Task: inverse folding
């Protein structure tokens, strides 16, 4: 019996298939792609500004909640060498104002500060094609945290105003 147990493990080791690895080198790189993330990894991130009744329209900026939103963008070409000269831009569409029934607040009343200035601080212009990150090399990942503020410079009727800003990454 003892010899069978010793022989069996040896038999298994000898006749095991030999493992191998295949290395593939793709000179042209990964497929071309464009990526953007604004806020949470999934869904739509909502920023809320609660203006105290005693401060309505007094010009005191009101920080949004959550107070730090991740903005991340990147692009790459399939060909490494064309990526060296290719650039991408990040733009926003803030042309549709915040609304509460027939009452509106233009997005020009919303600004943001950037933590690292990779995507600079600024203010929405109300344009459908506002560039918030000028042309950047396509093989870079740009990442920043933004805090949004309601500038609170006008008196508006009481209520909940909602709206949406759309971020876009493009490779011209």
Result:
């Amino acid at each position: 019996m003892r010899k069978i147990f010793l022989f069996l493990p040896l038999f298994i080791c000898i006749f095991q298939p030999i493992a191998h690895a295949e290395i593939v080198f793709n000179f042209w790189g990964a497929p071309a792609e464009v990526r953007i993330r604004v806020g949470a990894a999934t869904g739509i991130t909502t920023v809320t500004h609660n203006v105290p009744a005693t401060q309505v329209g007094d010009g005191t900026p009101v920080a949004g909640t959550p107070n730090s939103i991740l903005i991340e963008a990147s692009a790459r070409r399939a060909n490494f060498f064309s990526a060296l000269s290719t650039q991408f831009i990040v733009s926003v569409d803030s042309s549709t104002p915040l609304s509460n029934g027939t009452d509106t607040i233009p997005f020009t009343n919303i600004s943001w500060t950037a933590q690292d200035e990779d995507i600079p601080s600024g203010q929405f212009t109300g344009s459908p094609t506002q560039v918030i990150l000028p042309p950047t090399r396509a093989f870079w990942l740009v990442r920043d945290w933004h805090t949004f503020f309601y500038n609170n410079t006008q008196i508006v009727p009481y209520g909940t105003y909602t709206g949406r800003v759309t971020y876009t990454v493009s490779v011209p």
